[in-house]
Amino acid sequence: MPRLHMHVTDAAESPLRLALHELRGRLETPDHFPPTAQAEAESAARAPRIPAADGAVTGEHTLEDATDLPLFTLDPPGSLDLGQAMSLARRPGGGYRVHYAIADVAAFVTPGGALDAEAHHRVTTLYFPDERVPLHPPVLSEGAAGLLPDRDRPAVLWQLDLDADGAPAGARVRRALVRSRARLDYAAVQKILDDGTAEEPLALLREIGLLREEQEVARGAISLNVPEQEIVEDGGSYRLAYRAPLPAYGWNAQISLLTGMAAAELMLSAGTGILRTLPSAPDGSVARLRLTARALGVDWPHHTSYAALLRTLDPRRPAHAAFLQDCTALLRGAGYTAFDGTPPPASEALHAAVAAPYAHATAPLRRLVDRYTSELCLAASAGTEAPAWVRGALADLPREMELGTRRAHRVERACVDLVEAALLRDRVGEVFEGLVVEIQEKDPTQGTVHLVDPAVIGPVEAAPEGPALPLGRRIPVRLTEADPGHRPVRFTAA
Fold first, then answer.
1. What is the pTM of this model?
2. Rounded Cα gap, residues 352 and 362, in angstroms
3. What is the DSSP secondary structure assignment for residue 382, as one 8-state letter?
4. pLDDT at residue 76 tops 90
5. Element counts in the chain: helices (H) and strands (E)
């Protein structure tokens, strides 16, 4: 899916801003928090109520002081909802210790209150190019609950021990008071890691990240490096580009992934939890991909697994980019599996792409389910029962998350469609060079094309009376439609 990090900086009444405002109306996104929910948030920001070990909420509970940990946050530039901070160290006997602090949203949201109800309505933060629609009021997500630098904050603090190879060697989680020391972004971190000037604990991000990537390979996990569209600022205006994540982004993701896997194991051992699951690819899917690879000229030795092949591909090569795009079909069908009393069978607890049980645990400021995961893991680590308000919500959470995730994907796609059409609205009839990355199995005259420049992805059809679309080939395509807010871009083979 596209990643939206651009902020519109043109006039408030510009056509793009007006189209985005109309889009939010069509998608029925909330434009404000109910007064009761906002009042609850402001009150909680002034006086968080820290849940005790038994799940009871009190303002008197004393947090363990972990402000001595040298934590830092790592996010895209301009991020406002800082929900995770890490500290990395070597263990005296060998291996590594990862401390990962997660914003303690339960300290600010009272179960059953107006703010809780609004979070269940919103489910996720929604990102638009000109603004975001947050899961929680900004007084919390950008203020009192966020792990801002040089501020004491309540957090759910994970301690994750790894051996010298990066394999898990122990995990526990508890509530604590923490203080982030630095607010970092990916480009700056990548630069100092590359030039060798980074000091520990930051220097360990590369070391641990690479080891965790090796562990990922050993598990047979699937990692797709598909070029993504990104809306970016450019001299006060906007443009579309293809984005290749920096290595530091992947190493940071490995820490989050490690935490999500530890959370899943804790909940499975306790018999109560909610997992992010993905079924294995249907029979015949990999065989079909082998045929696609052959058609594209992608070398896939018979003894090489699908997961291993993906790590050898270069998305800058047209045939590889087309094949990677086709591979995304195997990652569809993700959902949430809740359980209370009896863990699901191993086959139903698996996230096929992670190649292990996995849970969403690290983003409670912007995703509803993570708040519940934190409470379930805190109880499991302490050997106590999960709070009644958590267990009572488990049955409905998978459906709520499915609807919220679907809405977020719809917003992301609609935003990129809108910006693509705005970018090209005056160029209808022009011919562009594009790469055919997908064709429909039942109708090879219909497919998807990536333009070389600008970074636009859209539907394409073969020319009337012309040949079928050539998968993985560059062809000239003519822009036939581009109407912001009404019709997304469409192309015809020229």
1. 0.88
2. 20
3. H
4. no
5. 14, 20
